[in-house]
């Protein structure tokens, strides 16, 4: 690793990022472009219209910043030390603590400032705020590999990580891309309640509880309501079964400690919640990006035992 990279990685570590890698800013490879185009053509992005927009930007991060030369990919652990009690309305781990957009951005801005100090030039921080393929670039930057569950897996540490990318005009030595794969494991595909994962394909959002509970508007498909089992925000099943998460260590990032409003959340509380209470409870949480009506729809959905694999 060059001295510049080592300095940036050290500063990233001080800011509590768990991984930091470097990639050259180039166009996305044709195969990855084709995969995304096919995902859209098959309608597997469901109603996420944003996925269809900004194709050119998504396929070439140099368009996000004039003179961009490099990408710095950072990852931050959110695996919780404690989980919700059994009677709780279940929330995916990523939304247990404070909104990662705010937490990551603040620290990425500090890292970007450091990059400007030591390298000069311009930077742009992206944490779900630009059409950028974070997992693709994380693989290129040697941070990890994209698993069959569509998450970025950091070898030895698992997938419970938020990703952020700093686009910079600084010329930084690229890291070695990560070449690991899932090998013969197909555990996540077997357990996905909606059959949303198929080998080599991006997740079919129409069959994914994470998409359906958070972004889908209107009624849930009947099969989805039957397999929710108290899950009101997101789904961690394909990460929980992943062998790479067996040794996940709890985050030490204080803002990601579970919020009382999440730990105490029950279906009854959600049912009685007003929009004012929702805002007060979740103003600094990623749950605030959901609609209260979706939370209430999910909480009231049936929790009868799952049918066998749902029909497509
Ligand atoms: S988040 Fe849940 S529903 Fe979505 S792919 Fe993973 S296991 Fe399947
Ligand atoms: S569960 Fe197995 S197949 Fe799925 S992402 Fe993890 S290693 Fe890959």
Main structural class: alpha+beta
Distance between the termini: 49 Å
The helix fraction, in percent, is 25-40%
Number of domains: 2
Broad shape: globular
Ligand kinds = iron/sulfur cluster
Unreliable residue runs: 304-312
Q: Taking Cα atoms only, what radius of gyration do you get, to the nearest Å?
A: 20 Å
Major β-sheet profile: 4 strands, antiparallel
Number of separate helices: 13
User: Biggest sheet, strands in spatial order?
Assistant: 1-2-7-4
Which range does the strand content fall in? Answer: 5-15%
The total of beta strands comes to 8
Oligomer state of the chains in this structure: single chain
Q: Give the averaged pLDDT, no decimals.
A: 94
Secondary-structure element order, N to C: HEHHEEHEHEEEHHHEHHHHH
Give structural notes.
With 312 residues, this protein is of the alpha+beta class. A hairpin with a 5-residue loop joins strand 5 and strand 6 (152-153). It has two domains: 3-80 and 99-168, no CATH class; 187-300, no CATH class. It has helices spanning 3-14, 30-41, 55-58, 100-119, 134-140, 187-191, 209-214, 222-227, 237-240, 260-263, 267-271, 275-282, 292-300, and strands spanning 19-24, 70-77, 90-91, 123-126, 145-146, 152-153, 161-168, 231-233. The structure holds iron/sulfur cluster (2 copies). Residues 149, 192-194, 196-197, 203, 208-210, 235, 237-238 line the site of one iron/sulfur cluster.
């Amino acid at each position: 690793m060059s001295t510049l990279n080592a300095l940036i990685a050290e500063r990233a570590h001080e800011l509590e990022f768990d991984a930091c890698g470097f990639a050259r800013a180039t166009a996305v490879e044709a195969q990855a472009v084709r995969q995304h185009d096919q995902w859209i053509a098959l309608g597997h992005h469901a109603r996420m219209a944003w996925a269809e927009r900004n194709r050119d930007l998504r396929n070439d991060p140099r368009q996000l910043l004039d003179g961009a030369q490099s990408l710095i990919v950072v990852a931050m652990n959110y695996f919780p030390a404690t989980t919700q009690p059994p009677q709780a309305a279940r929330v995916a781990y990523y939304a247990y603590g404070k909104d990662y957009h705010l937490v990551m951005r603040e620290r990425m801005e500090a890292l970007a400032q450091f990059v400007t100090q030591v390298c000069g030039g311009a930077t742009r921080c992206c944490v779900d705020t630009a059409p950028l393929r974070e997992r693709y670039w994380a693989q290129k930057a040697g941070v990890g590999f994209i698993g069959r569950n569509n998450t970025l897996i950091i070898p030895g540490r698992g997938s419970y990580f938020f990703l952020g990318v700093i686009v910079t005009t600084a010329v930084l030595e690229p890291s070695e891309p990560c070449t690991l794969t899932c090998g013969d494991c197909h555990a996540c595909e077997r357990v996905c309640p909606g059959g949303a994962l198929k080998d080599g394909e991006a997740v079919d959002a129409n069959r994914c509880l994470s998409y359906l509970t958070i972004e889908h508007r209107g009624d849930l498909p009947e099969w989805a309501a039957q397999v929710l089992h108290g899950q009101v925000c997101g789904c961690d099943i394909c990460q929980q079964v992943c062998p790479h998460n067996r040794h996940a260590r709890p985050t030490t990032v204080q803002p990601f400690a579970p919020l009382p409003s999440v730990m105490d959340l029950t279906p009854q509380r959600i049912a009685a919640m007003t929009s004012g209470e929702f805002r007060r409870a979740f103003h600094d949480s990623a749950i605030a990006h959901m609609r209260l009506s979706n939370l209430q729809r999910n909480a009231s959905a049936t929790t009868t035992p799952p049918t066998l694999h749902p029909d497509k």
